[in-house]
Amino acid sequence: MKRFSVILWFALVLTGLTMEGCTQQPTPTQTTFTATSQPAVPTATSTTVPVAKDQNLVIGMPISPRILDPDDLAPLSMAIFDLMYNKLIRVGTDGRLVPDLAESWEMVNPTTWRFHLRKGVKFHNGEEFNAETVKFTIEWNMDAKNNRLSRRGVPDVAKVNIVDSHTVDVTTTKPVGVQPTLLTIVYLLPAKYYARVGAQNFNNAPVGTGPFEYVDWKRDEYIKLQANPEYWEGKPKLNNVEIKIIPEASSRVAALKAGEVNLVYQLLPEQVDTVKTSGFEVKAVSIGQSYVFGFGRETLRAKPLQDKRVRQAIQHAVDMDAIIKGITGGMARKLDGQMAGPGVFGYSPDVRAYDYDPEKAKQLLTQAGYAQGFT
Q: Residue 268, SS3?
């Protein structure tokens, strides 16, 4: 087995120009886009040193999750949750929906989705995964009193009906064609155990169906997990996973070089060459999010920006490739004139970004009556 090493997470997706700052995942009514790039997670792996003879993996992360109850939508937290829990549906590496604990699903009518569940799956405490699990999880997230972030995955759900032990119908208040996609942020909870111990106690002793089960957690220091021998996809090849919280990027690199960790997340762009020359392979992996710089609403009301040609000129005037190279060392990806990137719901391969073309920008401004620019 290879020695993993660095995941340099550049959560940077850039656009070329801003008047009123930067927002993550903005709505079209708030900004007009200039260009975008998609954040990446570069990974570095050594091809010469085994991970560990005892099949233990130690990961260095910059921050501790807020909770271990899987209701934190931060990417780093979800990376940990993915080791411990499952969902009904997950997103594959190509952006397509793939089965997790729902083997299949179909739309029964415009407001009802039916999910057929895997059989023989058990939680780490032995509790059976079944339709009751799904009903409890969705209804728990639906309840506004529980203040769940995962409620975003069920905003229009009206009710959950159990068809049989491993089939459920999810009914929405209106047709929601993307309901299966929305459920990819909802992790499944053990209904009986969760109801018995309550949210706070569950957070201190979490139970999931994932490949690794909880052992210990000391906030801001470490999380320890061990292999789930009954995992439905087969026992993991690793025996243990330890996540060490190392806030400083330089300290994570030092721990990597010293062999104290096998893999680390979120390094700085300027550290890439150092990591490479230390014998590690660096890879960039998209995290499916984008950051967009644009114009605020007040700015958009300015007279020059009412002219489409002016907005097009601004697009052509921004050298996004140079920005990406200068700030991220080339580790971000310029998007195709849209917030979504390949593999993200809503992406259209037919949309293309504006090319960097200063001369074209000047021509457009001249045509719009702003040959000398404007303020």
A: coil
